[in-house]
Specification:
Radius of gyration: 16 Å
Strand content: 25-35%
Order of helices and strands: HEEEEEEEHH
Number of strands: 7
Helix content: 25-40%
Largest sheet: 5 strands, antiparallel
Strand order of the largest sheet: 1-2-3-6-7
Bound molecules: nickel (II) ion
Length: about 170
């Protein structure tokens, strides 16, 4: 069990297309546990395996109810696929791999996802509001897509310039 280092944009490894999980073994259970610990310690709302340089289709998400302490409930989804989407919502998103940026993103209001658990058993989940956003955001990571790709070009360019500038400053000091 370990807290894993999280890759930061613009690391090209965040752009990898993750492979489907085929082995539901102890290694997968350990990766899931590490993802949960890494997410909770960050803390974050969700985390996808490629963010810790393991390009496999597995995500974890915080599923804590409003009156429960954070980290109490974490869902693990293996090979998740969005099978239905409905409506639209705008949600202010951030990402553990994108330092110092939050931005409104347009997403579906409701999603239905099929996935497997750590034993390989299939299940279906329908989510709305914040949970629907997390699912869409994390499943995007499995295809190398970041929320940055879903905001305006102007905003993305501004962020990239700011990031370059701070990297240059860091090198000087
Ligand atoms: Ni993210």
């Amino acid at each position: 069990m370990a807290i894993l280092p999280i890759l930061k944009y613009p690391d090209p490894r965040l752009r990898q297309i993750s492979r489907a999980v085929t082995d539901f073994d102890a290694g997968l259970a350990e990766l899931a546990q590490d993802l949960r610990e890494t997410m909770v310690s960050a803390p974050g709302a969700g985390l996808a395996a490629p963010q810790v340089d393991r390009p496999l289709r597995i995500i974890v998400m915080d599923d804590t109810g409003e009156d429960e302490p954070y980290g109490e409930k974490v869902l693990t989804l293996v090979n998740p696929v969005i099978v239905a989407m409905d409506g639209e919502q705008i949600f202010n998103e951030g990402c553990l791999s994108v330092t110092d940026l939050q931005s409104d993103v347009h997403r579906a209001a409701t999603v239905t996802v099929t996935a497997q658990d750590l034993t390989g058993a299939f299940f279906t989940l329908t989510a709305t509001e914040r949970r629907a956003v997390i699912l869409q955001h994390e499943i995007d990571h499995l295809d190398g897509v970041l929320f940055l790709d879903r905001i305006s070009r102007v905003k993305k360019d501004m962020y990239r310039k700011k990031l370059l500038k701070s990297q240059k400053m860091a090198k000087k000091s």
